[in-house]
Design brief:
By secondary structure, this protein is of the alpha+beta class. The protein has 2 domains: 105 residues, 2-Layer Sandwich (Phosphorylase Kinase, domain 1), CATH 3.30.200.20; 179 residues, Transferase(Phosphotransferase), domain 1. Helices cover 36% and strands 14% of the residues. Helix 4 runs antiparallel to helix 8 and helix 8 crosses helix 11. The radius of gyration is 20 Å and the shape is globular.
């Protein structure tokens, strides 16, 4: 969809991540209208486990939007490096993502493309869900392009793959596929092509997680398998219900439950504000290229890439 750069707002000094969209999108008037409307809506999502969108604009025919700068790496990058997660770490990730999804669903926003690459993990273990709702106006769920689709297909719900649209339970299927991947080290229906992945999704069952990792509690395996049900009505109904089950498994004595505080999630439920000295000038967002952008009136850009003057903040 485009490259991501680190930027600095000249008026406030705030560091942000700036995503540059492909030139092709700027020529699509229908896309431009959807883009502006979606960004304005997504700016209303304010939650410690959701990457905050800051604004958007256009410069020299290039569309861009800015968002909260998050230190750390995404879960896809961590898996690619060979990192494996304990079941307790995965359960904690599940609770944090549930908190983000509940907030978004309460505002009528479906993610549509939940996958490890869209989950950022900060050095203190906080999870941040990014690219919220972006798939809706990029058409990422239509399986129309060869590049970058495989990763999405691995976590796409059956109803999305069949073109039936997305619901809140579609996001929960995707979360189940992410949790399975974090525990097993591979997606529930691995394949070498989109066709192979979808064929296995329709007609196969995933390898039981406990066969791959006997330390995973039976209850956690049952929760994930329920999330991966082909029938959306057979899945756990809401992020709140899912979070309660996972937190009960983690913390409560048998037969007791815990409530989800909608405003908090994660180990300490805080977004740490970094001092300038703590922010590395290197990559600070997945797929970030080493470049500096300045967003605000009269920005100056390094190298020969476009400047970003027109920011809607």
């Amino acid at each position: 969809m485009g490259a991501v750069y680190e930027g600095v707002h000249e008026q406030t000094g705030e560091r942000t991540a700036i995503k540059i969209l492909s030139f092709a999108f700027a020529d699509d008037s229908a896309f431009r209208s959807r883009f502006e409307a979606e960004i304005e809506m997504l700016k209303q999502l304010r939650h410690p486990n959701i990457v905050q969108l800051k604004g958007y604009g256009e410069q020299d025919g290039v569309l861009f939007y800015s968002m909260e700068l998050v230190p750390g790496q995404n879960l896809h990058e961590l898996l690619a490096r060979g990192m494996r997660f304990t079941w307790r770490e995965v359960a904690d990730i599940a609770v944090q993502v549930c908190s983000a999804l509940k907030h978004a669903h309460d505002h009528g926003v479906i993610h549509r493309d939940l996958k490890p690459a869209n989950l950022l993990r900060t050095p203190d273990g906080q999870i941040k869900l990014t690219d919220f709702g972006i798939a809706k106006f990029f058409g990422a769920t239509h399986l129309t392009s060869a590049g970058g689709v495989i990763g999405t297909a691995d976590y796409m719900s059956p109803e999305q793959a069949e073109g039936q649209g997305s619901t809140a339970r579609s996001d929960l299927y995707s979360l189940g596929a992410v949790l399975y991947t974090l525990l097993a080290g591979k997606p529930p229906f691995p394949g070498r092509s989109v066709t192979e992945i979808l064929e296995r999704m329709r007609h196969s069952e995933p390898v039981p997680i406990r066969r791959l990792d006997p330390n995973v509690p039976e209850e956690f395996e049952e929760i994930i398998l329920q999330l991966l049900s082909r029938d959306p009505q057979q899945r756990i109904a809401t992020p709140l219900a899912l979070s309660k089950r996972v937190r009960a498994m983690l913390h409560a004595p048998a037969g007791k439950d815990t409530d989800l505080d909608d405003e908090t999630a994660g180990p300490d439920a805080r977004t740490r504000v970094l001092d300038d000295a703590e922010v590395s000038p290197r990559r600070a967002h997945p797929h970030t290229q080493q470049a500096t952008r300045r967003c605000g009136r009269g920005q100056q850009a390094r190298r020969s890439l476009p400047r970003f003057r027109q920011c809607v903040l």
